[in-house]
Amino acid sequence: MDRAGWNYPDGDMRVSDADRDRALSELGQAFQVGRITADEFDQRSGQALAARTGKELTALLADLPVERAPAARTTGSEPAHRVHATRVAFAAALAAACFTVVAAASTLNTGPSLQQREFFERMAARQGLPVPRAFPPSLDWASVVIPGAIAVLLVGLITYLCVRLARPDHRK
């Protein structure tokens, strides 16, 4: 059988991490269908991870049939920076949601209740501290504006990343 069906780099050409991952996947498939034992799988997996050339990967799989159409050689169909940008966009979306919740909760907070205010006044009077006569319900702008502004900036980052990822020339 022609071993070119594995579609790894020829001879002493160096292999990529994606090639090693494909070899591990092929070994996993062979183990699942019973073509190799658990010990063979462990041994060959270690060799696949240590492989440097296409010849080494092909030798690991030489006694196994190519059961399906060979996987196309991966040249990084999804570049690493694109995957990283997608993860950053997801993390930014999660952070933006958290900051939005904090800003909304701060806006809706009416301050201490009447009972809490009375308790504070009694405790302050016992300690001999001056007691303000009124606690006007007020909005703590810092606790609303800062998380809101951060959320808006994160949404801007998400938008920028999504637009940049959608462009075909995203490497520039």
Helical content band: 55-70%
Q: Tell me, briefly, the overall form.
A: elongated
The count of DSSP E runs of length 2 or more, i.e. the number of strands, is 0
Please state the structural category: mainly alpha
List the uncertain runs.
69-74
The end-to-end span amounts to: 44 Å
Mean pLDDT: 77
Tally of DSSP helical segments: 6
Strand content: under 5%
Order of helices and strands, N to C? HHHHHH
**Oligomeric state, counting identical vs distinct chains:** single chain
| Main sheet makeup | none
What would you say this structure looks like, in words?
There is one protein chain. With 172 residues, the chain is an all-alpha fold. Among the domains are: 8-60; 80-112 and 138-166. It has six helices and no strands. Helix 1 (17-32) runs antiparallel to helix 2. The two termini are 44 Å apart.
In brief:
With 172 residues, the chain is an all-alpha fold. It has helices at residues 17-32, 38-50, 54-60, 80-108, 114-126, 141-166. Among the domains are: 8-60; 80-112 and 138-166.
